[in-house]
Sequence to fold (528 residues):
Amino acid sequence: MIDLLVSGGTVVDGTGTPPRHADVAVIGGRVEAVGDLAGRPAARTLDASGHVVAPGFVDVHTHSDLTLLSAPEAHSAVRQGVTTVVIGNCGLGVAPVAADPGALRAAAGYLDLDPSVRWDWTDLPGHLAALDTARPSVNVAALVAHTPLRAAAVGFEDRPADAAALDRMRGSLGDALSAGAAGVSTGLAYAPPCYAREDELEVLGRTAAAFGRLFAWHMRDYADGLLDSVRQVLRVAAATGCRTQISHLIAVGRRNHGSVARALDLIDAARSSGLDVAFDVYPYLAGNAPLSQLLPYWAQEGGEERMRARLRDRDARARVARAWRDMPNSWDEITISRVPGAAAVGEEDPVGRTVSAFAAGTGRDPSAAVLDLVAAHGNGVQMIAGGRVERDLLDALAHPAAVIGSDGQALDPDGPTGRGAPHPRSYGCYPRLFAEYVRTGPLPLAEAVRKCTLAAAERAGLTGRGALRPGAAADIVVFDPARITDRATYTAPQRYPDGIRAVIVGGRPVVEDGAHGGARPGEILRVP
Fold:
C-alpha cells in the first residue's frame, strides 16, 4: 500500500532533465516510485493535475538559527515550498558559546528576533538538539559560523589569531564537523571575522577540506572591492582545496553595476583550473543586513557594548561620518526594516522608512540618525539596502554554477519573529523566481528547479535530498506554473505566495492549498 500518491502532475525531478507526466509514490517518508502508477492502491491520493511536482526547495542560505526555535512551524519558508534550510551562513551563528554568552548573543543580533528564546547550549550538538526538540516543519542542516569560532578563540578585538587561537578554532570546527555540520561559513563584513587574516581563513578552509565539507563566504566587500574580494576567496580555495561557495553574489552601488560579469569571469577561470567554486543568489535587487554592517571595522571592535559606547563619542561619530561620504549607496536607498525593543527613536518610528526620510523627520543629518539608532539598539537594527541592477542579477541567475538561496529567515507573521518590515525574500523568494524569471523570463523550468533543489543540496553535501527518484526523501512541492507568484513586497512583506498546491516534508503534507496544517515532520540533518 502506497502511503501517499501524488498523481497526474508534471514531474520536474530536480536533475535538470525535461519535465514529464508521471505519478510519485511515497512509502515510509521516501519516494518509492516515479512513473505511471495508475491502479496502485494508496492510503491517500493528492491530485496534481495541471501542476508541477518537484522536489522541495533546498534553501542553502538562511539565517533561521534562532527563528526556528521561536516559530518551528517555519511559516514563511515552508509556505513558499522550502522543505530544507541551511543555517549558520555569513559567519553569523550561535555555537560554540564562549565564556561570555551575552557578548555572542549581542553579536548575533541579526538572528535574535525573539528575546524569549533561551540559549541552553554551549556547542553545535547542543544547538542542534534544541532544534530537534522544537520539531520544526522543515529539515535543518547547519554550517559552523566564524563569528562564534573567533569570539571563543580570540575575542572581539582587531588582532591576528596566534598559533594557539588557530589551533583552538581548528579543533572547535573539527568537533562540529565530526558532529555532522555541513561546513563552515565566514562573514568578513561583520565583527569579529572582519579582523581575520588570510592564514586564519586558510585554517578554516583546510579543516573543511579535510572533512569534505563546504566553506561558504560572505565576502569582505560587494561594492568597490567586489573583484578583490572574489580573488581572496579563490586564493583560499586554491590554497586549501575546499569546496567553496560565494554567498549572494551581486554588485552594490551604481558605480559598480556590471561588475558581476567580471566576477563570473574570475569564477569561470577558477572552475576551469579545477577548483570547486560556486555561488548562491536570490531574485531581488535589495539586500537585508544589520545596519551596523555599514560601520568601519574599527568602529565595531570590542563587541557590541563597546561599539555602542563608541558611537556616542563626538570624535568617533565625526570620523564615521567622514568615512560615509563616499558610500556606494545613498541614504535614500537604505530602509530601516527592524528595530528591537522600542519601535521608535525620538518622535519618529524609523521602521519602513528610508534613512533620508527618517532623518528629515527628526531634523537630523542621516549619518547622525543612523549612529543614534545603532548606539541605542546595537546589531539588532536591520536595514534593506538597494543600489543593485537587474543586469547583474540576470548574469548571476543564468550562470550554471548558481544556486538559489533566499538569505532569509523562517518567520511567523503573527509572532515575535514577524515584527517590523522584513525583506520579502523570507516569504516569496522561490515563487518570485518562477513568476519573474521562469514563466516570462530567461530560465527554463527544469533548470530553475535544479538550481533550487538538487544543485543546492549537492553544494551543502546533503545526500538523498533535492531529487525525485526512488529512495530519496519524500520532500515535495506541488505548484501551478501559471499561478505561482510572490505577494510579499517591501511595503507589505508579511504575505504568503499564491500558486502553491502542497508542500510535503518527509512524506507528510505540511501545507495544502496555502494553509499550514500544523505538521512538524522536519529532521535535523547531520552530514556523515
Remarks:
- The mean pLDDT is 97.
- The longest strand covers residues 4-11.
- Residues 163-178 form the longest helix (16 residues).
